[in-house]
Write a structure and sequence with these properties.
alpha/beta; disordered N terminus; 10 helices
Length: 352
């Protein structure tokens, strides 16, 4: 059973727009969270309720417009090596803050990278899983986002360079991220001080890792943050069509191509490849962020429904006008900074 609960945390007063937020609170948590408010579902949503909050100033449309122009000027190439380079080049557009310390490491055989800022608590770790459709993305492409999450959370970040398809199809990536999680536990990091975060395919891997850890008898991390998660490899969500004209990055045909490369003949409904088909019972709390202008909108909504139905504490936030994985552009996008700040509040509260 799920309900909507009002939060007492303050929202940023200088960002203005409407964020749709759904909180699914397991019955066992209700007694710890104050009064419950039940709302009737609106707009055909398949949840028990929607809660809407507004900010106090108007969002600068020119910021997201500038990001769209940036992407339009750098179209996706056809050749895989060039696609990988394009994503790395997008990550290189922004400068790494000078106070970030980077250290390469092998995490149970998986290439990885520690990052920290001066005030990071060494006992708290964000395990970061980059996006890229399971075929691209790297430590370089997502370094700035990974390090900024750590900064906002006051934690170190361990980013994993998991193996990519088609060279290493499913389940290689899932095995690598589980190995990374085991590495943190072997380093003496308490599970309650580990949060898992990832965007796009990395958002799907975040949930797959939590399912794998549960099935392996490992303790759950404190929580997970899924940014624009890709969790349906059949691409059956209605938003695949309804949002196709406004999404500058992700289209159904492209996702089907990526899914074929990643699955390499495996069942597209395999629980660890497409975790919206997994049994999510017993997973740690989830924060799911998705933009209203992306084809993966329904992936996020359906993941929240599956998680809430399984009695997972889940918060879904739908950010107006935002495109796929918009926090990647936080250095020039206020909504990206606010999303990271929201995630920081969520993660710190779960680690405390």
């Amino acid at each position: 059973m799920t309900s909507v609960i009002t939060n007492s945390d303050s929202w940023c007063d200088d960002f203005a727009s409407l964020v749709l937020t759904v909180h699914c609170i397991p019955i066992c948590e209700r007694r710890r969270n104050g009064a419950i408010l039940n709302f009737a579902a609106r707009g055909g949503a398949s949840f028990n309720g929607w809660m809407m909050r507004s900010y106090s100033a108007v969002m600068a449309d020119h910021e997201i417009g500038a990001i769209r122009a940036l992407l339009l000027a750098r179209p996706r190439p056809d050749e895989l090596s060039q696609r990988r380079k394009r994503l790395d080049d997008l990550g290189a557009l922004y400068k790494l803050p000078t106070d970030v310390r980077i250290e390469s490491v092998e995490a149970n055989g998986v290439r990885a990278e520690w990052s920290s800022t001066p005030h990071a608590d060494p006992t708290c770790v964000i395990l970061f899983l980059h996006g890229g459709g399971y075929v691209s993305g790297s430590l370089a492409s997502h370094r700035l986002l990974a390090t900024e999450i750590g900064r906002v959370c006051g934690a170190r970040t361990l980013a994993l360079d998991y193996r990519l398809a088609p060279e290493y199809p499913f389940p290689a990536a899932v095995r690598d991220v589980l190995a990374g999680y085991r590495f943190l536990l072997s380093c003496g990091i308490e599970p309650r001080h580990i949060a898992v975060a990832g965007d796009s395919a990395g958002g799907g891997l975040t949930v797959a890792l939590m399912v794998s850890a549960r099935d392996a008898g490992l303790p759950q991390p404190a929580c997970g943050w899924c940014i624009s998660p890709w969790v349906d490899l059949e691409c059956l969500g209605e938003s695949m069509n309804s949002k196709s004209e406004v999404d500058p990055l992700i289209q159904k045909a492209y996702l089907k191509e990526l899914a074929a490369a990643y699955l390499n003949g495996a069942d597209p409904r395999s629980a660890l490849a497409a975790p919206m088909h997994a049994n999510l019972k017993g997973l740690a709390p989830l924060l799911i962020h998705v933009g209203s202008a992306e084809t993966l909108l329904d992936d996020a909504i359906r993941l929240a429904k599956v998680a809430g139905t399984a009695d997972v504490a889940v918060t879904l936030e739908i950010w107006p006008d935002m495109i796929h994985a918009w926090p990647l552009f936080y250095q020039q996008l206020m909504a990206g900074r606010h999303a990271i700040a929201r995630a920081g509040t969520f993660i710190r509260s779960r680690m405390s």
